[in-house]
Amino acid sequence: MSAKLIDGKYVAELTRNQVREDVNHWVESGNRRPFLQVIQVGTDPGSTTYVRSKTRACEDVGIETDTNRLPDTVSAKQLKDLIRTHNENDGVDGILVQLPLPAHLSSHDVIESIDYRKDVDGFHPMNVGRLAVDQPTFRSCTPAGIFELFKHYSIPVKSKHAVVVGASNIVGSPMAIMLSRENTSGKATTTICHKFTKDLTQHTISADLLVVAAGQPEMIRGEMVKEGVVVIDVGINRVADETSEKGYKLVGDCHFESVSEKASWITPVPGGVGPMTVAMLMKNTLLAAKKSIYPE
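Above: the chain's sequence. Below: its structure in token form.
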């Protein structure tokens, strides 16, 4: 079997086109443009790249945006004071603090200081709690993007055995919640695995649907999955490659060649899940501007 590719770039483009149409209609109806406030602490190259892609996406769909760039020496009080000013500014619809933060700052503390009605990343405890009880909320962008891929490609989730490898608050945990809880598109029997899971293969090989978000290059190999599995590879890792001009190549958390021989569907890396994350951030920002989830 040779897996069919799940084209995240294409689906993300469709999603962004729809958001652009909705933004234009919103503005033509007499409303101001949605506004996303980004906060970046430090100059981590990866974070800078992510922030750049998010601001470009805003420009593409007609969402206004601004970035506060702070030194990595900023105190927790200074950062939270800045967030508070954006919380109180009615002209700001969404607030995004780019992660990771420097070690002296608690991401949990910082995220909780964001007004949950402007938490377009979907990380605030209020939004995570509403997700857990299947209530309308800002859904974490990467899992939400994965569900858009399921929808576009008509990949069934209900009653399937879904296995999530990775238990982070950003991807693994909300993904497992959504797979098991969502009435409209979830209802899978869900197993969540992590670095303390014994005999990982015993779990992955039973999966009908496998989501891998562990941050370990090519950890899932062909012998660890069954024929016909749907594989969503969230990982994006740099590994040395002497044949590349850059000296490295990007790989996922799955060994693509061996896993794709057995899978029915698989996301490539890059070009799979990544573009969907940014597209769903645009969608969440528009929802925040419309007060669709938390009406005034």
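The chain has a mean pLDDT of 95.
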